[in-house]
Amino acid sequence: MSDPIIHVSDLKKHFKVFKHHRGTLRGLRNLVSRQYHWVRAVDGIGFDIQPGELVGYIGPNGAGKSTTLKMLTGLLVPTSGEMRVNGCVPWRERRTYVATLGAVFGQRTSLWWDLPVFESLSLLQHVYAIPQERFQHNLDEFRALLEMDPFLDTPVRSLSLGQRMRADICAALLHDPTLLFLDEPTIGLDVVAKDRIRTFITHINRERGTTVILTTHDLSDVEKLCDRVMIIDHGHLLYDGRLEELRDRFGGKRELVVDLANGETTFVPKDAELVAREGRRLTYRFERSRITASALIGQLSAHYQIRDLQVREPEIEETVRRIYEERLLEQA
């Protein structure tokens, strides 16, 4: 295995937060009585990410996702711990380091507000000192994949949210970064715009080998894009592993939908529950820990002639909710 592109060990970031007094005379009390408390935004996390991975980094508001991302991009200095990204310590070697990464934050833009999109991208060519031939090659590829031609000459301030997000992703990749940080890249977008951006992210990860770290509240992004998931809550990593393993461990009940060609629907399979019947369409619910889908299909095939079938996985939202519930039970 190659050296990790990101190495994090026992990383911590604690903030000193002023405690505001409430009630009458609060202004005076806040002035003369300065009380503080510490917030542990990130509290001892560690992980390695290999080149070319596409990792979903998820958690509720206040979990520590954005704080981690800001340390990884060099915007924040950790309280303690070890971090190396692309061979650099991000906050110490910022000039060298930022040339190797791209970043897109859903609520902010790296483009010039009053300039047309093409002019903003041309300025970034000079900022990153991108050779003309490489700049043109990347721009041509990205504008085709992201369907940017209709708004290349439009001022950034006049773009829709989906158009601006596509332009920002293009801008973040013009200089061929080996590492891309995406913070809520599909927030507020319609289904078509989300699909276009997801397709592009998959392309640059697979075709260019770009390592991608994705934070999002839209768990369908994670399902469609990521094989590996890291879940953080209250500054601690609750889970780090493959998405399929996450489902196996916390996913709860699956469903098997079977369309029968003929036969009476009277058979009750072992370790499964019949939850719906619509004519010859039967829906069974089963625990993956008690019976596999193939074993259940085998039981049904012995009694029925099956025309079609489909296995439904539980929604990832339900899976993540179960992880948080287990965490709360451990702390109780």
Task: Write up what this structure looks like.
This protein is an alpha/beta fold and 332 residues long. The chain has two domains: 6-247, P-loop containing nucleotide triphosphate hydrolases (Rossmann fold, 3-Layer(aba) Sandwich), CATH 3.40.50; 253-313. 36% of the residues lie in helices and 30% in strands. A hairpin with a 2-residue loop joins β11 (273-278) and β12 (281-287). The chain is globular. The two termini are 40 Å apart. The relative contact order is 0.12. The mean pLDDT is 86.
Please supply descriptive tags for the structure shown above:
single chain, 332 residues, alpha/beta, Rossmann fold, six-stranded mixed beta sheet, four-stranded antiparallel beta sheet, 13 strands, 30% strand, globular
Question: Approximately how much beta-strand content do the residues carry?
Answer: 25-35%
Largest sheet: 6 strands, mixed
CATH level 3 topology of the largest domain? Rossmann fold
The dominant shape is: globular
What is the CATH class name of the largest domain? Alpha Beta
Count of discrete alpha- or pi-helical segments spanning 4 or more residues: 11
What is the alpha-carbon Rg in Å?
25 Å
Number of strands: 13
Number of domains as seen in the coordinates: 2
State the strand order across the main sheet.
Answer: 5-6-7-3-8-9
By CATH, the architecture of the largest domain is named 3-Layer(aba) Sandwich
